[in-house]
Fold:
Amino acid sequence: MRVPAFELVAPSSLAEATQFLKAKGSRAQLLAGGTDLVVRMKQRTALPEFIVNLKTIPGLTGTERLPEEGMRIGPLTRLADIAASPDVNEQYPELAKAARSVGSSQLRAIGTIGGNLCLETKCYYFDQSSSWWATSARCRKRGGERCYIVPSSTRGCVALCSGDTLPVLIAYRAQVRLTAPEGERVLPLEEFYTGRGIGHLNLGRGELLSQIRIPPPDGVRAAFFKYAPRNTIDFATVSLAVSLRREPREARVVVGGVASAPQRCPDAESLLARSAGIENLEEISRLSAEKLKMISWVRGPVGYKAQMVQVLVRDAVKRLQG
Structure:
């Protein structure tokens, strides 16, 4: 299936790109690697009149290691380069591992870290082709009135946030810089997501992701796990990261792939920060799954996902225990 007609725009600066985005609104979409956008255009789930090619803007690619500030990553840095970077592997090894888990080697050679963070939420029904929808009433994410995943729902969408690098970046306390015509703002990465299947990114009109920042490791150790039905290019049934910082004491348990935004597990984090001993292992894993807000059966029943969260959190904490 071919992509529909569009006009390609090649801005030379962030200012030019954000002004164009603000003027065109939903009629324009951003192109980074294109591994998700091109597929959605072929499926007719994305029909932009304009495509803004970010590759023509200098300064959006590469990693920069800063002793005082940790690391800055350009959103157009390819996932393959993140996985292979000596600096990333030395300072944030679980981020390199997460980048290696995305898709196939061909996709990682094209796909970008920014594209993975901004990946459109996914659902069995939304992802169907336009010919499939020709005989069915459209779901809410496609402009209809019905949610096929939760038929009793009277509003909203529960399509899943599926970026594999999200949990580990949140575990490493990453921030994102967002640029708009009016200026810039910096958010913790977990605040970049609204928790809604439709409009899942916290972006204003004309605003785009311009940088990823990770603070210095400062004794933070992390463990990342991804579970998918097959060891292929499938999206994760569950992806998660657990991190532990010794001084000052802080723990993070972040679960991805089970809701419309990554979820943290405060009760499990509190217990893990107080005591990471083997005697608390079962309680930490139980608390991690107990209060997750999972209502979508996409990629597996909710009960099964909860069990997998417990198993993977247990494995992650064991790894942190060394």
